[in-house]
Amino acid sequence: MSDITLSATVVVRGKRRVVDGIGFDVPRGTWFGVIGANGSGKTSLLRALAGRLPLAAGICRVDGRDLAADRAARARSFGFCPPADRLPDLMRGRELLDYARCGAVTDHRRLAALWSALGIAELSDRWIGDCSAGMRQRLAIACAFVGGHTRIILDEPFNWLDPVAAYDLRQVLRAMLNDGLTLVTALHDLPVLASACDAGVILADGTVAATLDRERLREAAVDPQAFERAMIDRLRSGR
Questions:
Q1: Which CATH number fits domain 29-40+78-237: 3.40.50.150, 3.90.930.60, 3.40.50.11740, 3.40.50.300?
Q2: Most exposed of 58, 107, 141, 173 (fewest Cβ within 10 Å)?
Q3: Residue 183's beta-bridge partner residues?
Q4: How would you classify the pairing of strands 199-204 and 16-27?
C-alpha cells in the first residue's frame, strides 16, 4: 500500500520550475532514496513534500489524502530534519528537541536505539554553538523523530557523520523501517543508495531520470561498482 504518492508534481522557485512533473510511489515501511547532481531539485522536492515549500501543481497523496494544496497538513504529516548548519547556537541540545517536539509526547522507548546511535545523551546539555558539524547533524536528525512521526524526511543525513555513527544510524533506521517507519532521504552517495534503500529515483534538472525499484537495487548491492558507473553515466548525461 502506498503511503506517499506524488504525480505531476511541480515546485517553482522564483520563475524557474526546479521540480517539473515528478511522480513516484512510496509504500509504507519503505526507505526511498532521492539522488541527483547539485541543482537537480532534491532539496526543493523534499522541502515541498514536507510542507516547507508550496506545490505549484500536481498531486501529493499522504495516506490516501491529497495534500497538494495544504502545506500545513503536509508539515504535520512528516518529521523533517532541519539544516544542521542553521540550528540556533544559543540553545542547548535538549532545548532544541523540546522546541522541535511541538508539544507531542516523545516515545522514549521507541527512540532509545536511535538516541543511542546519535549520542543524544551527551549532546543534551551542550550549547549548539559549541557543537561540531557532526554533532549538529545528529541533533538535526533527532529533531525529525522527536515528534513521533511515522513518516520521516531526511536531506543527506549521513553528511558530517563519522563512519561508525553513519553505520549505526543505518542499522537503527532499518530496524525502525521493519516496525513500519516510512523514510524518504536525499542522498549523494550511490553505494549507500544501493545498500540501504528499498527503492528510489535519480533526478536531473528537476525531472526523474531513472526509477530504481527493489529488484534493481538488489542487483546494485551485488555489484555496487557497476551500478555506480551506470548511474554516474546517467547523471553526466542528465537522463
A1: 3.40.50.300
A2: 107
A3: 31, 152
A4: unpaired
β-bridge mates for residue 24, sequence order: 6
Residues 215, 115: Cα–Cα separation, whole Å:
32
pLDDT at residue 220 is higher than 70 = yes
State the residue for C-alpha cell 517539473: 20
Q: Is-above-0.90 flag for pTM?
A: yes
With a cut of 80, say whether residue 193 has pLDDT above it.
yes
> What would the grid cell of residue 94 be?
535538549
The pLDDT tens digits of the residues spanning 14-23 come to 999 999 999 9
pLDDT, tens only, 44-59: 999 999 999 999 999 9
CA 85, 89, 90: angle at the middle one, nearest 5? 160
- Given a cut of 90, is residue 238 above it in pLDDT? no
The answer to whether the CB of 236 falls within 8 A of the CB of 210 is no
Cβ-Cβ contacts under 8 Å for 172 (sequence gap 6 or more): 113, 114, 116, 117
Long-range pairs of 207-214 with CB within 8 A, sequence gap ≥ 24: 207/20, 207/21, 207/22, 207/41, 208/22, 208/23, 208/24, 209/36, 209/234, 209/235, 209/238, 209/239, 210/234, 211/24, 212/33
Tell me if residue 159 falls in helix, strand or coil.
Answer: coil
